[in-house]
Structure formats: C-alpha cells, structure tokens
Write a structure and sequence with these properties.
There is one protein chain. With 278 residues, the chain is an alpha+beta fold. It is 29% helix and 26% strand. It is built from six helices and twelve strands. Strand 6 and strand 7 form a beta hairpin.
C-alpha cells in the first residue's frame, strides 16, 4: 500500500509540473539560429529488417534533425541508415559493434569514446565527436547506460509492485546508472568544451539519481517541458511516465520545443529539441 501511496504522490507532483511545463511551452519561441538535435535508441539487433530500417529512416527524415545521437545502432545497420538519410557517420576505429553512433548533416570528427566501468554490455557505451555547426563547434556525445532489464529477473516486468520498488531504488540509491552518470561527468570534465550536447538512453526515470546527477552539471532539455512527463519507452505496467531518453546541454546552450515523437518500430521513441546559444 505504501508503494502505491508513494506512486500517487509522485503522479500528483508530475501532473502539477506538467501543467506548468505546458503553460511555459505555449510561449516558447524557437530562434532562427538554432539546430535540431535528436537522440534515438533505434532498437535491438535481432529485430532489424530492411523495412524496420526504412521506417526508422522515415521517422528521422520527417523531423529533419541536424545531428542524430543513436543507441543500439549496430553495424552494418548504422551505415545503411546514414546512406538512407544522406548523413555523415562517425568513424570509430576498432569498434566492431558500434552500439553508440552519431549521424550529422555537418562535418564531424571523433573526439573520444569509452566503456564506462559500471557498464555491463559489450563495446563502448559513450562516443563523442566534434561537430562544426551553424552555431559553432559542438561536442556531441551519444550515451547508453546499463539497462535495468539486464539486472533483474524477466518475470519482474509483469509485477507492478516489484517495478515500483525498483523505481524507488533508482531514485534514492546508488545504482549502475548513477555510477555511470558520475563517471561520465568526470570523464567529460577535462575536455573543457563550452558547447556540449549529451543525448542518449540513460535507462533512468526523470526522478532517478542518475538523471539528477546529470542535471547537477548539465541542463535537461525536457525540464519544465511536457516531454519530461511523457514516456520515451513502450514498457507497460509502471504507473509513472517511463522517460529514459534525454538530451542534456552545457550552460552556454539553451533548448526549445523539446518533444518526444510518438512513432517508432522499436521499443523507444526519439526525442528531439532545438538547440541555440544563450
């Protein structure tokens, strides 16, 4: 009973904040000198087909982002997606699977890539590139943090009470994701870029310790925006918005018009925002 009382209180807070966010968004003006950034987990490798890739490409093309931060973008599918969209693709030497990838209309150059210590998957789970854009040079990073699914039993996803307990733990305790978020910030700090965009599948709810850790340093493009309270994942059974995909910005950048595109053949929806200088 306490779990559901807690969930009810959180939902009431979410609804109140959503009302404020919607009111603010109605007055948002997108500056002309802005670029579109999208983050998109395009789905697990076993689901892929030519039609699947064409659908993903169609969704991206429809929104026409300037930079796309991809997760679960395994080769050679990422190459095919870049070809379908006529985007430039980042070259990552020595990385066979390329779980994280970056596509861009602009010239881009690999800056760095890393497998965070707490990450339990194969290959690198963060990649960053220098991108020459209309608003100046950006450091753009695509990120994938450890999935909660990989750490719990499969039958848990059908148990609402267990899901609520897992969600509570994500909010109050250290987890793989919060540790990875802290490590990511420490890794990025010495790079000293003034314009930074970090997008990806953080596998973390908006109240989680991992998301809060990121917000301690970077602005959340969905903050005070209805997209913060909109699910970006298709999971069922949890009585909270399952927002796990984010775009974070350095202090010198602002965002407007952030939204979640409720269309996708995979289990995640893409998130897109307009980024401009302060």
């Amino acid at each position: 009973m306490r779990i559901f009382s807690y969930t009810t209180v959180v939902l009431l807070c979410v609804l109140g904040a959503a009302f404020v966010g919607i009111s603010l968004q109605q007055n948002e003006v997108v500056p002309e000198s802005s670029i579109k950034i999208m983050t998109y987990n395009i789905g697990t490798i076993w689901k892929r087909s030519n039609q699947y890739d064409a659908t993903v490409a169609s969704i991206i093309k429809q929104e026409s982002p300037d930079i796309v931060l991809l997760q679960e973008a395994f080769l050679p599918k990422a190459e095919k997606l870049a070809q379908l969209l006529h985007y430039k693709m980042l070259s990552i030497p020595g990385e066979k699977r390329q779980h994280v990838q970056i596509l861009s209309r602009y010239p881009l150059k690999l800056k760095a890539t890393i497998k965070l210590d707490s990450y339990d998957g194969d290959g690198q789970n963060v990649v960053c590139a220098e991108v020459e854009t209309e608003i100046g040079q950006l450091l753009a990073c695509s990120v994938y943090l450890t999935s909660v699914r990989s750490e719990i039993e499969k039958d848990t996803w059908d148990d609402t009470a267990k899901l609520a307990m897992i969600s509570l733990k994500e909010i109050v305790a250290d987890t793989s994701r919060s540790k990875e978020a802290e490590e990511l910030l420490n890794w990025l700090d010495p790079m000293e870029y003034s314009h930074v965009v970090i997008g990806g599948d953080f596998n973390s709810l908006f109240l989680s310790k991992a998301a809060r850790t990121m917000r301690n340093v970077y602005g959340d493009s969905s903050w005070f925006n209805p997209s913060l309270f909109t699910s970006s994942h298709k999971i069922q059974g949890l009585h909270l918005p399952v927002k796990v995909d984010y775009i974070f910005l350095s202090d010198e950048l602002s965002s407007s018009g952030t939204k979640i595109i409720k269309e996708s053949p995979g289990d995640h929806y893409p998130v897109i925002t307009n980024v401009h200088l302060n």
